[in-house]
Write a structure and sequence with these properties.
Elements: H1 2-5, H2 7-13, H3 20-47, H4 57-60
C-alpha cells in the first residue's frame, strides 16, 4: 500500500492508486485464498496433519539424460 499511495514511490514504481472498484476485485479474488490458507493452518495445528504443497527444486529441473 505504501508503494501505491506514497507519491515518490508510486512514481518510482510507475503505479497509480487503485479505485474502490479495483480494491473490491482484489478483495473478492483474494478472500477464498485467505480462507483456505487459514483453514489449512488450523487443521495443521489442531490435528497434527501436515500439508506439503511445495514444489521441490528437482521437480522444476529437466531430467538427466542418463535417467532414460
Amino acid at each position: 500500500m505504501l508503494i501505491l499511495y506514497v507519491h515518490p514511490l508510486a512514481v518510482l514504481f510507475s503505479v497509480t492508486p487503485l479505485s474502490w472498484a479495483e480494491w473490491t476485485a482484489v478483495l473478492y479474488l483474494s478472500f477464498p485464498v485467505i480462507i483456505i490458507d487459514e483453514d489449512l493452518k488450523f487443521l495443521s495445528r489442531n490435528t497434527g496433519l501436515r500439508f506439503r504443497f511445495r514444489l521441490r527444486k528437482t521437480d522444476l529441473l529437466p531430467k538427466d539424460r542418463r535417467d532414460k
